[in-house]
Protein backbone atom coordinates (compact mmCIF):
# COMPACT_ATOMS: atom_id res chain seq x y z
CA UNK A 1 0.00 0.00 0.00
CA UNK A 2 1.30 3.43 -0.89
CA UNK A 3 1.15 6.24 1.69
CA UNK A 4 -1.70 8.75 1.19
CA UNK A 5 0.76 11.35 -0.02
CA UNK A 6 4.45 11.79 -0.70
CA UNK A 7 6.71 13.05 2.10
CA UNK A 8 7.43 16.77 2.15
CA UNK A 9 11.03 17.78 1.34
CA UNK A 10 12.94 18.81 4.50
CA UNK A 11 15.40 20.96 2.54
CA UNK A 12 15.69 24.40 4.18
CA UNK A 13 15.28 27.59 2.17
CA UNK A 14 18.74 28.36 0.72
CA UNK A 15 18.31 32.02 1.70
CA UNK A 16 18.46 31.03 5.37
CA UNK A 17 21.91 29.37 5.13
CA UNK A 18 24.63 31.18 7.13
CA UNK A 19 26.61 33.59 4.96
CA UNK A 20 30.07 32.34 3.92
CA UNK A 21 32.69 33.99 1.72
CA UNK A 22 33.39 31.78 -1.31
CA UNK A 23 36.49 31.55 -3.47
CA UNK A 24 35.82 30.22 -6.98
CA UNK A 25 38.75 28.22 -8.38
CA UNK A 26 38.46 27.96 -12.19
CA UNK A 27 36.17 30.07 -14.39
CA UNK A 28 34.66 27.57 -16.84
CA UNK A 29 31.11 26.49 -17.61
CA UNK A 30 30.10 24.99 -14.27
CA UNK A 31 31.68 27.82 -12.26
CA UNK A 32 29.46 30.25 -14.15
CA UNK A 33 26.31 28.20 -13.43
CA UNK A 34 27.26 27.80 -9.78
CA UNK A 35 27.86 31.50 -9.17
CA UNK A 36 24.68 32.51 -10.99
CA UNK A 37 22.57 30.17 -8.86
CA UNK A 38 24.40 31.17 -5.67
CA UNK A 39 23.79 34.84 -6.33
CA UNK A 40 20.13 34.37 -7.28
CA UNK A 41 19.08 32.15 -4.42
CA UNK A 42 21.37 32.59 -1.41
CA UNK A 43 23.04 35.21 0.80
CA UNK A 44 26.46 33.64 0.10
CA UNK A 45 29.24 36.02 -0.95
CA UNK A 46 31.47 35.46 -3.98
CA UNK A 47 34.55 36.90 -2.32
CA UNK A 48 37.30 36.02 -4.79
CA UNK A 49 38.04 34.19 -8.01
CA UNK A 50 41.21 32.41 -9.10
CA UNK A 51 42.11 31.66 -12.69
CA UNK A 52 45.24 30.59 -14.53
CA UNK A 53 45.49 34.10 -15.93
CA UNK A 54 44.68 37.45 -14.37
CA UNK A 55 42.61 38.82 -17.31
CA UNK A 56 40.31 35.77 -17.14
CA UNK A 57 39.99 36.12 -13.39
CA UNK A 58 39.28 39.86 -13.75
CA UNK A 59 36.56 39.28 -16.36
CA UNK A 60 34.88 36.71 -14.12
CA UNK A 61 35.19 39.00 -11.09
CA UNK A 62 33.51 41.78 -13.06
CA UNK A 63 30.66 39.47 -14.13
CA UNK A 64 30.26 38.26 -10.56
CA UNK A 65 29.86 41.61 -8.89
CA UNK A 66 33.37 42.74 -8.09
CA UNK A 67 35.03 39.77 -6.39
CA UNK A 68 38.80 39.98 -5.86
CA UNK A 69 40.62 38.57 -8.92
CA UNK A 70 43.71 36.36 -8.69
CA UNK A 71 45.80 35.25 -11.67
CA UNK A 72 46.73 32.02 -9.90
CA UNK A 73 44.99 29.40 -7.81
CA UNK A 74 47.66 29.81 -5.12
CA UNK A 75 46.77 33.48 -4.84
CA UNK A 76 43.10 32.65 -4.36
CA UNK A 77 43.58 30.10 -1.59
CA UNK A 78 45.94 32.46 0.29
CA UNK A 79 43.23 35.14 0.60
CA UNK A 80 42.38 35.28 4.33
CA UNK A 81 38.87 36.58 3.56
CA UNK A 82 37.92 33.36 1.75
CA UNK A 83 36.16 30.76 3.95
CA UNK A 84 35.46 28.02 1.42
CA UNK A 85 36.83 27.21 -2.04
CA UNK A 86 34.69 25.76 -4.83
CA UNK A 87 36.94 23.68 -7.13
CA UNK A 88 35.62 23.84 -10.71
CA UNK A 89 38.57 22.66 -12.81
CA UNK A 90 38.75 19.49 -15.01
CA UNK A 91 38.62 16.16 -13.13
CA UNK A 92 42.35 15.41 -13.10
CA UNK A 93 43.07 18.70 -11.33
CA UNK A 94 40.54 18.25 -8.52
CA UNK A 95 43.00 16.48 -6.22
CA UNK A 96 45.95 18.88 -6.60
CA UNK A 97 43.68 21.94 -6.53
CA UNK A 98 41.76 20.72 -3.48
CA UNK A 99 45.01 19.87 -1.66
CA UNK A 100 46.26 23.39 -2.39
CA UNK A 101 43.13 24.86 -0.75
CA UNK A 102 43.06 22.39 2.14
CA UNK A 103 46.72 23.03 2.94
CA UNK A 104 45.89 26.75 3.05
CA UNK A 105 43.28 25.90 5.70
CA UNK A 106 40.23 26.34 3.46
CA UNK A 107 37.05 24.29 3.44
CA UNK A 108 36.39 22.76 0.00
CA UNK A 109 33.46 21.87 -2.24
CA UNK A 110 34.92 19.88 -5.14
CA UNK A 111 33.16 19.26 -8.45
CA UNK A 112 32.25 15.72 -9.39
CA UNK A 113 33.98 13.38 -9.77
CA UNK A 114 36.01 14.42 -6.74
CA UNK A 115 39.06 12.68 -8.25
CA UNK A 116 40.07 10.13 -10.85
CA UNK A 117 39.91 7.16 -8.48
CA UNK A 118 38.87 6.01 -5.03
CA UNK A 119 42.48 6.42 -3.91
CA UNK A 120 42.40 10.09 -4.90
CA UNK A 121 39.16 10.59 -2.95
CA UNK A 122 40.72 8.90 0.10
CA UNK A 123 43.83 11.09 -0.19
CA UNK A 124 41.70 14.24 -0.28
CA UNK A 125 39.56 13.08 2.62
CA UNK A 126 42.63 12.26 4.70
CA UNK A 127 44.12 15.71 4.01
CA UNK A 128 40.86 17.45 4.95
CA UNK A 129 40.53 15.45 8.17
CA UNK A 130 44.13 16.22 9.09
CA UNK A 131 43.57 19.93 8.47
CA UNK A 132 40.20 19.85 10.23
CA UNK A 133 38.38 21.40 7.26
CA UNK A 134 35.11 20.55 5.52
CA UNK A 135 35.29 18.50 2.31
CA UNK A 136 32.46 17.40 0.05
CA UNK A 137 31.96 16.27 -3.55
CA UNK A 138 29.62 18.63 -5.40
CA UNK A 139 27.08 15.88 -6.04
CA UNK A 140 24.28 18.45 -6.15
CA UNK A 141 21.61 15.82 -6.98
CA UNK A 142 21.61 14.60 -3.40
CA UNK A 143 21.04 18.15 -2.10
CA UNK A 144 17.87 18.69 -4.17
CA UNK A 145 14.48 18.72 -2.40
CA UNK A 146 13.28 16.03 -4.84
CA UNK A 147 16.01 13.68 -3.65
CA UNK A 148 15.07 14.36 -0.05
CA UNK A 149 11.59 13.03 -0.88
CA UNK A 150 13.18 9.95 -2.50
CA UNK A 151 15.51 9.61 0.52
CA UNK A 152 12.50 9.52 2.85
CA UNK A 153 10.67 6.97 0.67
CA UNK A 154 13.76 4.73 0.84
CA UNK A 155 14.39 5.11 4.58
CA UNK A 156 10.68 4.71 5.39
CA UNK A 157 10.70 1.38 3.51
CA UNK A 158 7.91 2.46 1.14
CA UNK A 159 9.57 0.57 -1.73
CA UNK A 160 9.89 -2.62 0.32
CA UNK A 161 13.12 -4.40 -0.57
CA UNK A 162 14.93 -2.51 -3.40
CA UNK A 163 15.49 -5.02 -6.22
CA UNK A 164 16.87 -2.98 -9.11
CA UNK A 165 18.22 0.37 -10.24
CA UNK A 166 18.03 1.18 -13.95
CA UNK A 167 19.66 4.43 -14.99
CA UNK A 168 21.04 6.03 -18.12
CA UNK A 169 22.72 9.29 -19.04
CA UNK A 170 23.76 10.29 -22.53
CA UNK A 171 24.64 13.47 -24.35
CA UNK A 172 26.14 14.10 -27.80
CA UNK A 173 29.21 16.32 -27.47
CA UNK A 174 31.02 18.40 -30.06
CA UNK A 175 34.40 17.02 -31.11
CA UNK A 176 36.29 19.84 -29.35
CA UNK A 177 34.66 19.34 -25.93
CA UNK A 178 36.99 18.47 -23.04
CA UNK A 179 35.09 15.16 -22.56
CA UNK A 180 36.86 13.91 -25.71
CA UNK A 181 40.35 14.85 -24.50
CA UNK A 182 42.54 12.11 -23.02
CA UNK A 183 44.80 14.72 -21.38
CA UNK A 184 41.76 15.90 -19.35
CA UNK A 185 40.75 12.35 -18.32
CA UNK A 186 37.85 12.40 -20.80
CA UNK A 187 35.21 9.78 -21.58
CA UNK A 188 31.62 9.48 -20.35
CA UNK A 189 32.25 7.53 -17.13
CA UNK A 190 33.71 10.19 -14.82
CA UNK A 191 31.75 13.07 -16.28
CA UNK A 192 28.28 11.56 -16.76
CA UNK A 193 28.51 8.03 -15.35
CA UNK A 194 29.09 9.46 -11.87
CA UNK A 195 25.32 10.06 -11.65
CA UNK A 196 23.96 6.57 -12.40
CA UNK A 197 26.77 4.90 -10.42
CA UNK A 198 26.06 7.28 -7.52
CA UNK A 199 22.34 6.41 -7.68
CA UNK A 200 22.94 2.65 -7.76
CA UNK A 201 25.42 2.69 -4.87
CA UNK A 202 23.28 5.12 -2.86
CA UNK A 203 20.30 2.76 -3.08
CA UNK A 204 21.97 -0.66 -3.15
CA UNK A 205 25.36 -0.13 -1.45
CA UNK A 206 28.55 -1.89 -2.55
CA UNK A 207 28.07 -4.40 -5.38
CA UNK A 208 29.67 -7.86 -5.21
CA UNK A 209 30.12 -8.10 -8.97
CA UNK A 210 30.84 -5.28 -11.43
CA UNK A 211 30.64 -5.99 -15.16
CA UNK A 212 30.95 -3.59 -18.06
CA UNK A 213 31.38 -3.47 -21.81
CA UNK A 214 32.04 -0.42 -23.95
CA UNK A 215 32.69 0.97 -27.38
CA UNK A 216 35.28 3.58 -28.34
CA UNK A 217 34.58 7.15 -29.44
CA UNK A 218 38.09 7.68 -30.78
CA UNK A 219 41.32 5.70 -30.64
CA UNK A 220 42.02 7.19 -27.21
CA UNK A 221 38.59 7.84 -25.66
CA UNK A 222 35.81 5.51 -24.58
CA UNK A 223 32.44 6.44 -26.13
CA UNK A 224 29.87 4.50 -24.16
CA UNK A 225 29.49 1.90 -21.43
CA UNK A 226 26.86 -0.65 -20.47
CA UNK A 227 27.35 -1.59 -16.82
CA UNK A 228 25.79 -4.18 -14.55
CA UNK A 229 26.23 -4.25 -10.79
CA UNK A 230 25.21 -7.26 -8.76
CA UNK A 231 24.38 -7.34 -5.04
CA UNK A 232 23.05 -10.38 -3.15
CA UNK A 233 19.38 -9.48 -3.77
CA UNK A 234 19.50 -6.69 -6.33
CA UNK A 235 20.97 -5.62 -9.65
CA UNK A 236 21.71 -2.34 -11.37
CA UNK A 237 21.71 -1.87 -15.16
CA UNK A 238 23.40 1.38 -16.13
CA UNK A 239 24.38 3.08 -19.39
CA UNK A 240 26.32 6.20 -20.25
CA UNK A 241 27.40 7.70 -23.54
CA UNK A 242 28.99 10.85 -24.93
CA UNK A 243 27.91 9.99 -28.47
CA UNK A 244 24.10 10.19 -28.38
CA UNK A 245 21.16 11.80 -26.63
CA UNK A 246 19.59 9.04 -24.55
CA UNK A 247 16.57 9.14 -22.18
CA UNK A 248 18.56 10.04 -19.02
CA UNK A 249 15.85 8.59 -16.82
CA UNK A 250 16.10 6.33 -13.80
CA UNK A 251 14.03 3.65 -12.07
CA UNK A 252 14.37 2.40 -8.50
CA UNK A 253 12.36 -0.81 -8.33
CA UNK A 254 11.28 -2.39 -5.05
CA UNK A 255 9.22 -5.33 -3.89
CA UNK A 256 6.34 -3.01 -2.88
CA UNK A 257 6.68 0.07 -5.08
CA UNK A 258 8.78 1.62 -7.85
CA UNK A 259 10.11 5.13 -8.36
CA UNK A 260 10.37 6.32 -11.99
CA UNK A 261 12.36 9.51 -12.40
CA UNK A 262 11.91 11.47 -15.59
CA UNK A 263 14.58 13.09 -17.76
CA UNK A 264 16.99 14.49 -16.42
CA UNK A 265 16.81 12.17 -13.42
CA UNK A 266 19.72 13.81 -11.57
CA UNK A 267 18.31 17.33 -11.78
CA UNK A 268 15.07 18.93 -10.61
CA UNK A 269 11.84 17.67 -12.22
CA UNK A 270 9.07 15.12 -11.82
CA UNK A 271 9.02 11.52 -10.61
CA UNK A 272 6.27 8.98 -9.94
CA UNK A 273 5.84 6.40 -7.21
CA UNK A 274 3.84 3.39 -8.39
CA UNK A 275 2.58 0.64 -6.10
CA UNK A 276 2.25 -3.06 -6.92
CA UNK A 277 -1.48 -2.53 -7.54
CA UNK A 278 -0.84 0.33 -9.97
CA UNK A 279 -1.70 3.10 -7.48
CA UNK A 280 0.37 6.18 -8.29
CA UNK A 281 1.65 9.29 -6.53
CA UNK A 282 3.39 12.04 -8.47
CA UNK A 283 6.07 14.52 -7.46
CA UNK A 284 6.11 17.59 -9.65
CA UNK A 285 8.26 20.69 -9.75
CA UNK A 286 9.64 22.90 -12.50
CA UNK A 287 12.81 21.59 -14.12
CA UNK A 288 15.24 24.45 -13.52
CA UNK A 289 18.45 22.65 -14.49
CA UNK A 290 21.61 24.18 -13.03
CA UNK A 291 19.71 27.04 -11.42
CA UNK A 292 19.26 24.51 -8.59
CA UNK A 293 22.98 24.37 -7.74
CA UNK A 294 22.32 26.71 -4.81
CA UNK A 295 20.94 23.82 -2.75
CA UNK A 296 24.42 22.25 -2.49
CA UNK A 297 26.03 25.61 -1.64
CA UNK A 298 23.48 26.19 1.13
CA UNK A 299 24.11 22.68 2.47
CA UNK A 300 27.86 23.38 2.56
CA UNK A 301 27.31 26.70 4.36
CA UNK A 302 25.05 25.10 6.97
CA UNK A 303 27.50 22.23 7.63
CA UNK A 304 30.53 24.52 7.92
CA UNK A 305 28.71 26.96 10.22
CA UNK A 306 27.71 23.95 12.30
CA UNK A 307 31.37 22.83 12.64
CA UNK A 308 30.94 19.68 10.52
CA UNK A 309 33.75 18.38 8.30
CA UNK A 310 31.43 16.61 5.88
CA UNK A 311 27.81 16.55 4.78
CA UNK A 312 25.41 13.74 5.69
CA UNK A 313 23.84 14.23 2.25
CA UNK A 314 27.04 13.20 0.45
CA UNK A 315 29.46 11.75 3.00
CA UNK A 316 33.01 11.19 1.77
CA UNK A 317 32.56 7.44 2.39
CA UNK A 318 29.81 7.45 -0.27
CA UNK A 319 32.02 9.41 -2.66
CA UNK A 320 34.78 6.83 -2.18
CA UNK A 321 32.24 4.03 -2.78
CA UNK A 322 31.09 5.55 -6.09
CA UNK A 323 34.68 6.00 -7.26
CA UNK A 324 35.65 2.48 -6.18
CA UNK A 325 32.87 1.11 -8.41
CA UNK A 326 34.03 3.35 -11.25
CA UNK A 327 37.58 2.00 -10.73
CA UNK A 328 36.18 -1.52 -11.18
CA UNK A 329 34.23 -0.48 -14.29
CA UNK A 330 37.39 0.99 -15.82
CA UNK A 331 39.27 -2.18 -14.97
CA UNK A 332 36.57 -4.32 -16.63
CA UNK A 333 36.75 -2.29 -19.85
CA UNK A 334 40.46 -1.48 -19.79
CA UNK A 335 40.21 2.30 -19.36
CA UNK A 336 43.37 3.75 -17.85
CA UNK A 337 44.56 7.29 -17.26
CA UNK A 338 47.98 7.75 -18.79
CA UNK A 339 50.06 9.83 -16.38
CA UNK A 340 52.33 10.73 -19.29
CA UNK A 341 49.38 12.34 -21.09
CA UNK A 342 47.65 13.89 -18.09
CA UNK A 343 49.74 16.86 -17.01
CA UNK A 344 48.75 17.99 -13.55
CA UNK A 345 49.60 21.62 -13.79
N1 LIG B 1 27.66 19.58 -11.34
C1 LIG B 1 27.41 19.60 -12.63
O1 LIG B 1 26.28 19.58 -13.09
C2 LIG B 1 28.57 19.71 -13.58
C3 LIG B 1 28.33 20.12 -14.91
C4 LIG B 1 29.44 20.29 -15.73
C5 LIG B 1 30.72 20.01 -15.28
N2 LIG B 1 30.89 19.58 -14.00
C6 LIG B 1 32.26 19.25 -13.51
O2 LIG B 1 32.97 20.46 -13.36
C7 LIG B 1 34.32 20.30 -13.79
C8 LIG B 1 34.62 21.38 -14.83
O3 LIG B 1 33.77 21.21 -15.94
P1 LIG B 1 33.42 22.43 -16.93
O4 LIG B 1 32.42 21.89 -17.89
O5 LIG B 1 33.09 23.65 -16.17
O6 LIG B 1 34.82 22.61 -17.68
P2 LIG B 1 35.37 23.90 -18.44
O7 LIG B 1 34.27 24.74 -18.94
O8 LIG B 1 36.39 23.41 -19.38
O9 LIG B 1 36.08 24.73 -17.27
C9 LIG B 1 37.18 24.23 -16.56
C10 LIG B 1 38.01 25.39 -16.04
O10 LIG B 1 39.13 24.84 -15.35
C11 LIG B 1 40.25 25.67 -15.52
N3 LIG B 1 41.40 24.87 -15.99
C12 LIG B 1 42.56 24.66 -15.31
N4 LIG B 1 43.39 23.88 -15.99
C13 LIG B 1 42.78 23.58 -17.15
C14 LIG B 1 43.16 22.83 -18.28
N5 LIG B 1 44.35 22.19 -18.34
N6 LIG B 1 42.30 22.73 -19.30
C15 LIG B 1 41.10 23.33 -19.23
N7 LIG B 1 40.68 24.07 -18.19
C16 LIG B 1 41.51 24.20 -17.14
C17 LIG B 1 39.87 26.76 -16.48
O11 LIG B 1 39.61 27.93 -15.71
P3 LIG B 1 40.67 29.11 -15.64
O12 LIG B 1 41.11 29.37 -17.04
O13 LIG B 1 39.90 30.22 -15.06
O14 LIG B 1 41.82 28.68 -14.76
C18 LIG B 1 38.60 26.28 -17.12
O15 LIG B 1 37.75 27.32 -17.48
C19 LIG B 1 34.45 18.87 -14.31
O16 LIG B 1 35.10 18.07 -13.37
C20 LIG B 1 33.01 18.41 -14.51
O17 LIG B 1 32.81 17.03 -14.22
C21 LIG B 1 29.86 19.44 -13.15
TrEMBL record:
GO MF term set? nucleotide binding; oxidoreductase activity
Record domain Gfo/Idh/MocA-like oxidoreductase N-terminal: where:
20-137
Q: What name does this protein carry?
A: Gfo/Idh/MocA family oxidoreductase
Q: Does the keyword NAD apply?
A: yes
Per the database record, which ranges form the GFO/IDH/MocA-like oxidoreductase domain? 150-259
Keyword NAD part of the UniProt annotation: yes
Q: Which UniProt keywords apply?
A: NAD, Oxidoreductase
Gene3D superfamilies xrefs: Dihydrodipicolinate Reductase, domain 2, NAD(P)-binding Rossmann-like Domain
Superkingdom, natural source: Bacteria
Annotated family: Belongs to the Gfo/Idh/MocA family.
